[in-house]
Amino acid sequence: MTQSFQNVRGTHDFTPGESRLFSSLNSRARQTFALYGYEEIILPILEEEAVFKKGVGETSDIVERQMFKIARRAESGDEEQIVLRPEGTAQVARYFIQNSLHKQGDFYKFFYMGAMFRGERPQKGRLRQFNHIGAEALGSRSPWLDAEVVALADSLITDFGIKEKELKINNLGCKADKERFAVLLQERLEALRSGLCVDCQRRLDKNPLRVIDCKNSQCKKIVESLKLGDEHICPDCKSHFAQVLTALDQSEVKYAVVPTLVRGLDYYTNTVFEFTSSSLGSQDACGAGGRYDGLLASLGGSPIPAIGFALGVERLMLALGEAQEEPLLDVYVTAVSAELIAQAVKITDHLRREGVRADTDYCGKSLKAQLRQAERKAARFSIVIGPDELKENSVMVKDMKEGKQEKVKIEELILKIKERN
Ligand code: HAM
Predict the structure, then answer these.
(1) How far is it, in rounded angstroms, from Cα 88 to Cα 101?
(2) What predicted TM-score, i.e. pTM, was given to this entire model?
(3) Class at the top of the CATH hierarchy for domain 331-420
(4) C-alpha 310 to ligand 1 mean position (Å)
């Protein structure tokens, strides 16, 4: 029996229509990033495991159980621990430090687009290889920057056409606030330990904040019963967050403050946020981010404050559905018989040279089948080349939308198509 191959579980083959939408989202994002002064960086898919262990946190789900590892022996004979990057923030921080940008005291705004890898249990909207459109701004602690970054993410999601979106925002406070919060949580949850899931009982000892974003319904109920407030946040961090909200109000960005939003990556401090869309089902987050003022120092750099976000492109595409299909061709050139291929190719070439998107049939199909192909490619016009029309140096042009057809002189073809397109 011959073996039949399938794509790897948790990966997705984009069809031509999906690929068009994917490219269109990326190019629209590039335009918006340019408006906000962000520069593109393209970083490798392979990265040292330690970057994420130190950056994202040893007890985060990503590091504990989701990284795709590639163990290999370096020329020195030592074992190298390389991974497929699970996210972009720690990687951008590594790039920043490696290039000594932290020593120059400047302010940098970067964006990136590319594949990320996480060994999660695949389901709708949750893949093992997925794409991020991300942005990171490094070198400022201003609450106005927090608001700009949130507004930029909001503007991208709105411009893409995502409906029923919600923005949740929270204040985690500084490192000391987070440590206070962890102690407070541990104390309050200890008495309720037996009601938590097995994972959360372990998390309670290692990293109590992780209990807060557990999806288990019993854990959620316990967390709700704690009625968490902001008593662990210091006055400076309270004031920073109040200014972020004022700046968001000024930019007319709508949000809801949600005290249980903690995010699953350990580097976050102060402002954290998440965009959800009710059209997405259980995996409803289509983008998220936050401040990470301690990350650069924890990777060996200077204590540079920073903030950023990443949007999940496949989730955005799921939320958009197929509404955004764009026509592939302006003109599909058909011939009534296979002998006329030379004329069909000549006219197709002529159209393309004039900037008209055109294609023709190379399979010797019947005229009916060629016209079906023109429909499948959503061509705006089809051209029929026949011997009688050719004698008059003409072709038949059919408007595929309106169904009308007319005989057009070949020398007037381009003008007519451009006029009506
Ligand atoms: P994240 O929340 O892990 O954050 O990922 C951002 C977005 O990527 C999510 O909101 C979701 O839309 C999408 N995503 C995550 N995992 C998957 C998956 N398995 N399948 C499909 N889509 C997924 C980060 O990665 C941070 N680096 C964001 C950030 C940038 N924070 C500061 N700067």
Answers:
(1) 17
(2) 0.90
(3) alpha beta
(4) 6
